[in-house]
Amino acid sequence: MTTEEMTLRVNELERRQLWLVRFGLVVLALVTGPLLVGAGKATTDGTIDAQKVVIRDLKGTTRIAIGSAVDGTGTIELFDASGGKVMSLRGSTAAPIIELADGAGGSAWLTASATGSSLALSKGNGEVEIAANAAGAPYLHLQDRTGKMLWQAP
């Protein structure tokens, strides 16, 4: 794979990731507010108490789930028409994660923790990862669609 081909591939992955982030944020903003207002049990102080909120489409397919994972981590998940997860937001002080998926093996991950932060874009075995450890030292790696490492630094 030439440098030009690699640049084109990285640009395409970045374009897809940006579209998924924008879509996810718009859907999250439009859906979360009304869901929280109408779901669960209202308390005397004006809050709503629920363990999980699930929104299904007319066919019964889960499209949105808001709740907590087994470990207590808060989650918001968005699903496509076939029930495939397209976005996940997990709130944990140890390692919050935003995950976007295209339903066909492509994904983007953004995470931050005490050990560092990273952005990973992947499709099949191909991956681009940009990271920084807790001390701020950068790391970058590129691998092709077969999983073969093409380049990494350091």
Topology summary:
Elements: H1 3-38, E1 41-42, E2 48-49, E3 53-56, E4 62-68, E5 74-79, E6 85-91, E7 97-101, E8 106-113, E9 116-123, E10 126-133, E11 138-143, E12 149-153
Antiparallel strand pairs: 1-2, 3-4, 4-5, 5-6, 6-7, 7-8, 8-9, 9-10, 10-11, 11-12
How many strand segments?
12
Strand order of the largest sheet: 3-4-5-6-7-8-9-10-11-12
Q: Radius of gyration, Cα only, in angstroms?
A: 18 Å
Major sheet summary line: 10 strands, antiparallel
Oligomeric nature of the chains:
single chain
Tell me the strand percentage band: 35-45%
Sum this structure up briefly.
This protein has 154 residues and is an alpha+beta fold. 23% of the residues lie in helices and 44% in strands. The two termini are 20 Å apart.
What does this structure look like?
The protein is of the alpha+beta class. It has one domain (3-153). Helix content is 23%, strand content 44%. It is built from one helix and twelve strands; from the N terminus they run αββββββββββββ. The strands form two sheets. A ten-stranded antiparallel sheet has the order 3-4-5-6-7-8-9-10-11-12, covered by helices on one side. A hairpin with a 4-residue loop joins strand 7 and strand 8. The longest helix is centred in the N-terminal third of the chain and has 36 residues, at 3-38.
Keywords:
154 residues, alpha+beta, two-stranded antiparallel ribbon, 44% strand
